[in-house]
């Protein structure tokens, strides 16, 4: 069984409620039919009910009747959601009139459903830009307690099984923070370990990467990694984590033993925390292309509830897989 199949299997029957705000979009609706048919999640579709039902009938989708459908325009609970949004954003200058308009936006309504506990997570982005998906999430759901930095991890599945955990590694941050502080790097490390455990299904061994291994180079950028390591250990004393480590010392046992002989994870790391967005993004793309690796993600980490963003070029299968990932995230919170 490959990793995606395992992720989907672990989601089945857990009955997490995932909201799909692009409920009228064809790929989303076809994916919803598959998700419901496989019992991966309960679904809330946002969109015009008549249009959703007509499309489902036209495309011969048999399972859409199992979904809850909410029309954002003709929503009898519009005032209820507007009042909640107003209370959250009034100190930012939002008026009740503006709130009433915003709750007609499926992306805002989706996040409000999560805020009120009516949904456990969200998958969107087939028709919307990343910024539009994330803005309501940052404003309403916000971050987990003790976490200030939202980050993006990729689950890398390599054909060469000697790396990571049978070829599976987590790379972060590859999507959000250009130049994280020591505190933010520590938060990324802890969040990435959570992704490794609850999505990839592996026990995390976290390496804080640098161009130095255990003081082999002196530089303020190295000092930042050392500080981040100390903070991460405070945040999660039981976490298997070490640094600073060069990439080869982190993933190749012989080099890890030589360069960091006292390390508990050197040479066997399966979670790689990069010192900057540029290094993380470059690394995952190089590994994906040069090693013909599968890159699953980005999986957003650090939000108080799982909200994940699709590529606008996504396939039906991509949507089903991201729903399953989101369910596993929700199961781990």
List keywords for this structure.
333 residues, alpha/beta, Rossmann fold, 6-stranded mixed beta sheet, 5-stranded parallel beta sheet, 11 strands, globular
What does the model show?
- About 45% of the residues lie in helices and about 15% in strands.
- It is α/β, with parallel strands linked by helices and about 325 residues long.
- The protein has two domains: about 5-140 and about 305-330, Rossmann fold; about 150-295, Rossmann fold.
- The strands form two sheets. Strands 8-7-9-6-5-10 form a six-stranded mixed β-sheet, with helices on both faces.
- Strand 2, helix 3 (about 50-60) and strand 3 form a beta-alpha-beta unit.
- Helix 4 packs across helix 5 and helix 8 (about 180-200) crosses helix 9 (about 220-235).
- It is globular, with a radius of gyration of 21 Å.
- It starts with a helix and ends with a helix.
- The mean pLDDT is about 95.
Q: Could you name the CATH class of the largest domain?
A: Alpha Beta
Overall domain count: 2
**Mean pLDDT across residues:** 95
Spatially, the strands of the biggest sheet line up as 8-7-9-6-5-10
> Span between N and C termini?
25 Å
Corresponding CATH architecture of the largest domain: 3-Layer(aba) Sandwich
* Helix/strand structural class: alpha/beta
Helix percent reads 40-55%
């Amino acid at each position: 069984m490959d990793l995606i199949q395992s992720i989907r299997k672990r989601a089945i029957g857990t009955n997490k409620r995932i909201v799909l705000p692009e409920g009228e979009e064809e790929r989303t609706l076809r994916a919803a039919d598959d998700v419901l048919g496989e019992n991966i999640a309960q679904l809330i579709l946002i969109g015009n009910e008549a249009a959703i039902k007509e499309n489902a009938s036209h495309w011969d989708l048999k399972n859409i009747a199992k979904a809850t459908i909410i029309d954002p325009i003709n929503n009898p609970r519009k005032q209820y959601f507007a009042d909640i949004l107003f209370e959250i954003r009034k100190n930012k200058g939002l008026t009740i009139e503006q709130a009433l308009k915003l709750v007609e936006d499926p992306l805002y309504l989706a996040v409000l459903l999560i805020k009120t506990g009516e949904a456990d997570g969200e998958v969107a982005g087939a028709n919307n830009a990343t910024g539009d998906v994330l803005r309501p999430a940052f404003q309403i759901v916000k971050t987990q307690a003790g976490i200030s930095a939202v980050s993006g991890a990729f689950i890398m599945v390599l054909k060469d099984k000697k790396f990571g955990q049978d070829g599976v590694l987590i790379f972060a941050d590859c999507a959000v923070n250009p130049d994280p502080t020591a505190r933010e790097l520590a938060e990324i490390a802890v969040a990435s370990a959570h992704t490794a455990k609850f999505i990839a299904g592996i026990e995390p061994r976290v390496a804080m990467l640098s161009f130095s291994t255990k003081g082999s180079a002196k530089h303020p950028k190295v000092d930042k990694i050392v500080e981040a390591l100390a903070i991460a250990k405070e945040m999660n004393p039981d976490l298997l984590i070490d640094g600073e480590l060069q990439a080869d010392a982190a993933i190749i046992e012989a080099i890890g033993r030589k360069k960091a002989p006292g390390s508990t994870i050197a040479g066997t790391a399966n979670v790689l925390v990069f010192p900057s967005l540029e290094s993380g993004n470059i690394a995952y793309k190089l590994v994906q292309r040069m090693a013909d690796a599968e890159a699953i993600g980005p999986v957003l980490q650090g939000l108080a509830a799982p909200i994940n963003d699709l590529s606008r070029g996504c396939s039906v299968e991509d949507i089903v897989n991201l729903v399953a990932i989101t369910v596993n995230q929700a199961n781990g919170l």
